[in-house]
Every structure is written in structure tokens, then in C-alpha cells.
Amino acid sequence: MLGRKLESDEQLILGAGFVGGLLMVWMLSGIIVKVLAFAVIAGSCAWATLAPYKGRTYLKWFEISRTYKKLLRDGSLLYRSKAPIAGRMADGRRVPIDVPPGVPKDMEWISARTAFGQIATLLQPHELTFTAAVEVEAMRDFGSLDTDDKEALIRAYESLLKSTADGGGRIRRLQWIARIIPTDPNAHVRDAAARRDPHAPAWLDHSYGELIRQVAVTAEDRRLILALGIPYTSDLVAEARRYNTLHEGYAVTLGKDIESFIRSLAGGQLRHVRNLDEAALASYLHHAYDPSHWIDDTTGMDRVTAWPAELDARSADHMVSRSWESSPDAWHSRTAWVKEWPVLPVGINFLAPLLLYVQDVIISMSVTMDLVPTDQAITEAMADATNELGQADKRTGKIEDPREQKAQRASLSTMQEIANGAAGIRLAGWVTVTSSSSEHLRRDADTIRNAVTRSGLRLEWCDREHHRAFANTLPFGGGLLKEGR
């Protein structure tokens, strides 16, 4: 347990168990009775706090179950959008409405200006952070490159992370969201056949037929969304106050930082596709709850229409979302967190079984990174290495556990890599699976579990809190606690 940070409730239970055991020792008589009483009380609290129980601990499951039952009683897990009856102000502004459960509350939408167009910036007051999202594109033929070229791209990517962390900018969190949606590769052909004009000239008909045969159509629509997290600080507020209004100040100040980051994407071998302005971000959010709504369909999309018509998170093992025009069957979603990353060395394409080889499954994989400055990263790596070496049992004649040796080598290697210029990050991963029915959802969840196993990952489904976990795969920069919290 060395090096583990206990949360406040865990510290309270452990402390109460120890104090309660001491009180029983003071109140009871008889050595055996005192020992038994202390062992039962202190041991029970330690077991509830530290011992594994259904993949977590009993205390964590107790808190999850308590919160889940409370939300069930007050009806918070059944959401119905008030967009149709919210109306508008006389100047055209939309009236804010409640957001679905799990989504950060009281968000303020601010439109920031950059040289690449407008971008929607969300102020999350409870998280004390601003977030914005851009769509990027990596190299398409990455898999066909040789090893040296792949490693060069990885070094360029590390350089992007390191320069962002140490460059003095305000961006401190990155969230990468890979969205994969199956498509129908023959839809274009069928649509062209249905709309074909029998009276069209033969040369035009032949030319269009040749065009259809030459157009390459993929079976999946793959999007890579990058959410940027900027902490809400007093320095930022002071700079924003120099303008007429705070909103204007935030828009200009944040726009400069976002624009600077977008310009640096080329150094990481990433291509900037577009900024997600209010309409584009709202369309993506609506699509996440209702995949039948296409991502690029921004007609009528804004901060009010971004949310689904209905969200039912009362089921313990999945949530159901419905849009205004979707079928009565709606969409079912499950979200899991990446419980374990690969413990052995892996190749560059270790996520290919999940992101490339899975067919006909709607998934979102989110990886949230906190960028750590180099000096701080080296300090933390040295502390981890000291912790690993300190736990090693190196008594004379004692054979050292090979797993401990591997952990020691990994911690020392991490410390050396950071000193050599590698980026320091803290990360967390989340995977959401969406299907058209509960039966298909169970099948697709098993498919994803098998895929991540081949990738060297382990998942744990977030039962009784899927509404919260689902929001961690939306471009809000969530899914990772801030340092010190």
C-alpha cells in the first residue's frame, strides 16, 4: 500500500476503526476479548477500505450504491429535454436548460476567435476549467510505414506534448477521442440508382457510373476529436478583465492560446481539420447520444438542442437515450474505464485490435492526459523509483520476486526517459459502446472486451454510474482527477 493516496472517506473509516478498536480495548476486560474486539473492529474497517471486492473495494461500492439509490429516488436518472418549450429571448439568445445527468452542470458557452475560425469554449465552474475541441487527422497510412518512420512520428508526437507542457502556455490537459461509426459502403450506389434519371443522356449516365466505381468508400467513419483543457486561474481572469466584458476577455485570451496550439499541431504530424464551434460541438454531442444524427449535420444545432430528447439511466448496467426523431427502440450505451494498461512492452500499434479490427460496432475511446512539466515529472518519477526500490526485499539469501524486479526496471527507465526528453503525463482511458438494442449491446460489449484483451488492456464496466462515465467520453476534458484532489 506504499505510495497509495487514500481519499478522505477512506482515511475516516480507517481512523474510526482504529479508534473504535482502542475504545473496546479500554472498555472490555480480558486479554483475549480485547484482542478479538480490536481485531474485529479494526480489521473490518481495513477490509472495507483496502481489500479488493468485486473489482473495487466494499467502501467504494457502498458509496456508488448509495448515490445510485439516491438518484433513483429523486428522479435525476430520468432526463427529459425542455428544448421545445424553452423558447428564445427577444434578441435571439437561447434560454439555458438543464443538461443530462453526468454532464458538468452550469456550463457557460463562450465563442472564441482564432485565425482558423470560431471555436466554442465551455467554462465549467465546478471543475474550474475551460474546454474547447478541434477535429484533427493523423497520418492515414501509418500502418504501412517502416519502423524507423513510425518511431520518428512518435518522437514528433512526444515533442508536441513536451512543448505544450513546458512552453509556458495555459493548456494543461488534452483529451483524445476516437469515434468510430459503421457506415454502409453501398449506400451511395443505392441512392444513385434510386435517383437515376432514365431520360438522361447516355454519355452522362456512363460518366456518373464510372465515377461511382472509382470512388473509394470505407465501411467506417472515423473521427479524432481533441479537447483542450485550460485551468481557470486568477491570472487568466486578470487578463480577461482588461476587456469590456469578462466573456469578451475570455474569448480573446483563450483564442490566442488555442490558436497557438493549433499552429503547433503540424510539429506533431497532425493535421487540423476544423474547429468545433457551437453548432459543430452541439452536433457532435447530440450524435454521441443518438448515432443516427450525423456528426456534420449542424442544422438547428446549438447549446440547447445539443442534448437528447430523453435519457434513462435508471438501469444499473446501461443507459438509454432517445432523440426527437429516432425509433422507439432508441440507443443503448455502456461505458468502461481502462483498469489496466499494458504491463509488458508493446508495439506502436498495440491498440489496433480495438480501433482498427473491430467491425460493425459504434465505439468511442477517450484518453485524457494531464501534461506534467519536465521538472515535476522527473520529481514524481524519482519518487516512484524510490518507492519501488524501498519495497524490494533484498535480504541475504532471499530470492527477489521477478515481478518486483520488472517494476523497478520500469520505474528507473521512466525516470531516464523523462530526463532524455520524453513528455511527462498522467492519463486515464474510457471506452463507450453504443448499440440499437440491449441484446446487441451485450454482444458488442463482449466484442470490445475481447479486443481490448488482445491490446493488453483490462476494462471494468461502470455499472450504476454509466451516465457519469459516458460523459467522460464527451469532449469535456473529464475522466481524470486534478492533481491534489
Automatic annotation (TrEMBL):
The chain crosses the membrane at residues 12-29. Keywords: Membrane, Transmembrane, Transmembrane helix. This is Uncharacterized protein. It comes from Streptantibioticus parmotrematis.
